[in-house]
């Protein structure tokens, strides 16, 4: 059977962080229960089209999925198992924020078949966490991490962020080392991006320096500038050096894992495998057709509840050109890069015949390495957005 990954979107959170542009928001118990019921109906209705697939991975993300009750999470898992055929050892991940879990909820997740957890630490400095609008402290994170281990999780990711307001290189590296000392199987370490539509954007702007009137919802002690590009680059480079010395392999631009613990679900995205998304705003791709669910909560729920319409929007059959572009800019995110034989197997054309001039130019600029696999150089990783943009015709 063909393999497929499933993404379940839970849009709820305790409070929106100041930097967050994800489809997420706080909601009361009644709203959350109504959403879970709608989600289960969507899964039941849409799963019929995936009978020829076997589920290889599930990712329950958000938002903060662990704001749901343990019973609601179990119902979601039961609904997926009723509608889909699962492989022998699927990777099933749930995202969690400290302060939204206890031992009982974590044990219930394990009993429901969830075998991987991703905890958003972001920083080990309580001042930085407050400036980000996080609802937890470093102590809360350590407690949640310990509870997850006690509940039986043996595949854990910790998210860390760099280039935060007022952050110094030494402080960031000290926090990173504290996480390494916990020995999680996987660490995602990425830089803060100031996204349009967030409170941070109102203050920092696109370049991290422009300031408008100070947004009232932000902490009054928020620094006026973010770390410089040079400081951010040093944080990124030192992150790779320290994690690799600690036994973590960098398998993607911002993701590090102990051998055998790479995130199977995310690799599926980067390798353009089919995936099915359920819930508000969730995206899907099957047979090179992509679509997205409505991001309007009332529309989503009403369509599901009374069957009056389709929650799917933006249905698009990808052209060969678009498929090739995605194959390159997603594949280049991974350390192993893009295999020339893989490209030919998918498209029936050599990589050189399509992108030969681009690859030659980028190799000349010291951004790519050309061999059986085309991959980013360390310098290419630093400016990966520029490199990947060159493969867009």
Reported for the largest beta sheet, the result is:
9 strands, mixed
Share of helical residues: 40-55%
Beta-strand residue percentage: 15-25%
Unreliable residue runs: none
**Mean pLDDT across all amino acids:** 95
Any idea what the shape is? Answer: globular
Characteristics of this structure?
globular; alpha/beta; 393 residues; 3-stranded antiparallel beta sheet; 40% helix; 15 strands; 9-stranded mixed beta sheet
Explain what this protein looks like in three dimensions.
The protein is an alpha/beta fold and 393 residues long. Helices cover 40% and strands 21% of the residues. The chain is built from 15 helices and 15 strands. α1 packs parallel to α2 and α1 (29-46) packs across α10 (297-306). 41% of the residues are buried.
How would you summarize the topology of this molecule?
Elements: E1 2-10, H1 29-46, E2 53-62, H2 70-83, E3 86-96, H3 103-111, E4 116-122, H4 126-132, H5 138-150, E5 156-162, H6 169-181, E6 186-191, H7 199-204, H8 229-245, E7 249-252, E8 255-257, H9 264-270, E9 275-278, E10 283-286, E11 289-293, H10 297-306, E12 312-317, H11 320-331, E13 338-339, H12 340-347, H13 351-364, E14 368-369, E15 373-376, H14 378-382, H15 384-389
Parallel strand pairs: 1-2, 1-9, 2-3, 3-4, 4-5, 5-6
Antiparallel strand pairs: 6-8, 7-8, 10-11, 11-12, 13-15, 14-15
